Amino acid sequence: MMLKPSIDTLLDKVPSKYSLVILEAKRAHELEAGAKATQDFKSVKSTLRALEEIEAGNVVIHPNPEAKREMVRLKAELERKRQEEEEKKIKEQIAKEKEEGGKI
């Protein structure tokens, strides 16, 4: 049985088998979590879909992984701050409504 895409074509896209396995696993997890696909697939399984995307060149290893980690960390921090602000506004609104309710 021949696997499609073949390992030879995939290794033209990434520097090593190890990098290929890691990239495939990460992309397969993203696809299973609901990430938007970059193309139509022949395969049903997410791991093979990830390999199809790698072969097409739609998914690549980030050239600067440290910068990517920092960007993800900053996005998480911004989201946390946004949620804190939203909670603060809700608490202020509740306090204001309690004050107005007591005056009536």
TrEMBL record:
Q: Write the Enzyme Commission number(s) for this entry.
A: 2.7.7.6
The record's GO CC annotations read: DNA-directed RNA polymerase complex
Q: Which domain of life is it from?
A: Bacteria
Q: For the region Disordered, give the residue spans.
A: 79-104
Keyword list (alphabetical) reads: DNA-directed RNA polymerase, Nucleotidyltransferase, Transcription, Transferase
What does the record list as GO biological process?
A: DNA-templated transcription
* Alphabetical list of Pfam families matching this protein: RNA_pol_Rpb6
What reaction does this catalyse? RNA(n) + a ribonucleoside 5'-triphosphate = RNA(n+1) + diphosphate
A single Gene Ontology MF term assigned here is: DNA binding
HAMAP family reported in the protein's UniProt record: RNApol_bact_RpoZ (MF_00366)
Summary of subunit composition and partner proteins: The RNAP catalytic core consists of 2 alpha, 1 beta, 1 beta' and 1 omega subunit. When a sigma factor is associated with the core the holoenzyme is formed, which can initiate transcription.
Query: What this chain does, per the record?
Result: Promotes RNA polymerase assembly. Latches the N- and C-terminal regions of the beta' subunit thereby facilitating its interaction with the beta and alpha subunits.
**Protein family per UniProt:** Belongs to the RNA polymerase subunit omega family.
Protein's name according to its UniProt entry: DNA-directed RNA polymerase subunit omega
